[in-house]
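This protein record is not my work; I was only asked to verify it. Where you disagree with what is written, explain briefly why. This is what I was given:
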Amino acid sequence: MRSKNSHKENVALITQRHPRSAVAEAYRTLRTNLGFASVDHACRSILVTSPGPEHGKSTTAANLAIVLAQAGQKVLLADCDLRKPDIHRLFSLDNAAGLTNTLIQGRDPVELAHPGPVKNLTVLTSGPVPPNPAELLGSDRVRSLWPQLLERFDSVIIDTPPVLAVTDSVLLSRQIDGVILVVSAGVSRVEVIQQAKEQLAKASARIIGVVLNKVKIPSRDYHYYYDYHRDEEQEKIRF
């Protein structure tokens, strides 16, 4: 069920709202690069996190899930940030029930999930925030959840809390095929990024990439990109 605000355009989901934009193209490049990163070791479950808050990890997870679905994969986007969940807000979804109901009550996660705004995408919101997120995410029930979901989906994208804020992401990283670390241009300090990397390495997490977020595109480069794709579209029309 969508919330009352579902009619409002959410610019954070740029890969759906503006698929021909430069930013949307950057997400498709990320999708392609992930394919190269998983040649020898398939990454069907991907955890998305950041060193600290406000780096854009949830937006990155959401748009990555969308471009994977647009490429024909059957994708589940799961909100495992059980402290400050944001996925339901990005998609304007009701969050009365979700992942926590699956873990605590044993309910089917797919029955609690919502259809996404694009074909092939399913969104599992966090559900009610529990009093003990770390204990819940480190439980055997969570570890058994991912194989079950991968029987029903081609890819599972997991949004998690920042690495240095709480232990949740580190606990989950041991259970997942690969980790994407999202850092913010001009905000993330090198030493903080290094600390986050070390925390994940201690858990034997497989970091498959780093996303540099909030990069300012010079206006001349943006106009070049826009003109290029406008000309490309006109060629298709003439054809």
Residues 219-238 form the longest helix (20 residues). The beta strands are 45-49, 75-79, 114-115, 121-124, 155-159, 178-184, 207-213. The chain has one domain: 14-238.
